[in-house]
Amino acid sequence: MALHFYDERAGEVVPGDEIVLTGAEAHHAASVRRVRVGEDVTVTDGRGAWIVGSCEEVSPQRVVVRVATREDVPAAAPRLVLVQALAKGDRDELAVQAATELGIDEVVPWQASRSVSRWQGPKAEKGRARWATIVREAAKQAHRAWIAEVSPVADLAALASRAQASRMLVLDPTAPGALTAIETDDARDLVLVVGPEGGIAPDELERLAAAGAERVRLGTTILRTSTAGPAALAILNAKLRRW
After folding, report:
1. Cα–Cα distance between 84 and 194 in angstroms, integer?
2. Angle at CA 104, nearest 5°, toward 99 and 107?
């Protein structure tokens, strides 16, 4: 399988044009992935453009790809959105990385009341930017034509508002209904909400339920915050027949 790279200008090219990878992407291609002149690669703009081309020039500063074919991959419907509560260590980042590989379309960092990690002031944008980098790299690893958006950190009020406009599924091990039992014929966004290490607080569950969210469970065990979202996404991918 051809190696896969990202360039925001890929959506502007047609067969016969060239794409020039520079900066970190060129260094990664030449020095880390060690592509060679004449080797075929794929490139995306992260918005559906899927470019196949051959490397005509390779150096750590500049990689020139001659475009052979272009395909425009449509966006997935319904969109899958992961609301991931901030967690200590790298558990939230592990969840975001795996969710990207599994096909998530948007990631929403959530400052839950029980989140040990706190994104406040300049740290909020720094954290969002780090998650965006994780998402981009995971999307390249998974050979995705679409790279998920990472939204600004949300509070409970923002989630409640979102629950009114989408189908929100809150992962709760005490919920009466299982995720595997839900129907997936709804055209609205499917929004998965994953709590922090200590779980989602009762008042948060009540607020989201009042806004229209559904509580669902994954099984009889308690999963870590880094595991719950990817496990739920695997179920939804199967139910939506994407797998």
Report:
1. 5
2. 85
> What is the rounded CA–CA span in Å between residue 237 and residue 82?
13
Two structure tokens written together for 96? 């975001």
Q: Print pLDDT tens along the chain (243 aa).
A: 789 999 999 999 999 999 999 999 999 999 999 999 999 999 999 999 999 999 999 999 999 999 999 999 999 999 999 999 999 889 999 999 999 999 999 999 999 999 988 998 889 999 999 999 999 999 999 999 999 999 999 999 999 999 999 999 999 999 999 999 999 888 899 999 999 988 999 999 999 999 999 999 998 889 999 999 999 999 999 999 999
Looking at the DSSP assignment, which residues form a beta bridge with residue 42?
4, 52
Residue owning tokens 């020095």: 31
The tokens of 28 are what? 């990664």
| Maximum pairwise Cα distance, the chain | 59
